[in-house]
Amino acid sequence: MLSLGMFRADTNLNSGLQCSDADNSTSESSFRANLDNLLGLLTEKGPSSNGFFKTTVGRKSGKIYGLMQCRGDVSAENCANCTRESVAVALRDCLKSKKVQVWFTWCFLRYSNEHFFGVWDQSSAAIVNETNFDNASLISRGIVFMSEVAITAPKQPLMFHAAVLDAGQFGKRYGMAQCTRDISRTDCSRCLDTQLMTFRTTIGNKRGWEVYGSSCSMWYHDYQFYSNIPITANDGET
């Protein structure tokens, strides 16, 4: 676990799991061999490929498409550990599924017997602390701030952006947005905008929240949860 000094430590938690219905054909030796090969490639190559790797294993109807991505601020070592953890969860909890998605705080794993590369998937889920409300005067500023983060992320080389909102006497708020690098910048923008609109009521008055999706994710907290990124504060106002 990474220590952030005076800030709280960022913890790599299992944030979500999605498995398709059980399929007995997953027990066939050819599928399992392809899956093992795929997961091995993602685990080996992803962390050393700037935290993102996608590949296909198998032929014709036996193809499996796989993708892994780590959060943009995560070290290669933590990325590798997170990828191994996500693979372990997939094999433990979704062994009979052909379509699997695993979200951890630091990484995302997805594989399927159907092609999904480059396709914006709108499915998302929000994680909030229902009792951790923010100061009323900061609610609109927080949303504006995260809207700016969402606008900036698709324009970055890795479609990843982090920023800090200086809220004066109320402290700071830290935001981050990231898209999977297989989708276009246009779809990245649409993905993040849709998340903010979809979950605005759920997240709007919270001091901290996270939204995890198949094509993009967002984080917002009142403590510095990321590392190794030079950030310039703004006041979150237009």
Automatic annotation (TrEMBL):
Keywords: Repeat, Secreted, Signal. It comes from the Eukaryota. Belongs to the cysteine-rich repeat secretory protein family. Its main location: secreted. Pfam families: Stress-antifung. Residues 13-116, 120-225 form the Gnk2-homologous domain. It is found in: Secreted. This is Gnk2-homologous domain-containing protein. The keyword Secreted applies.
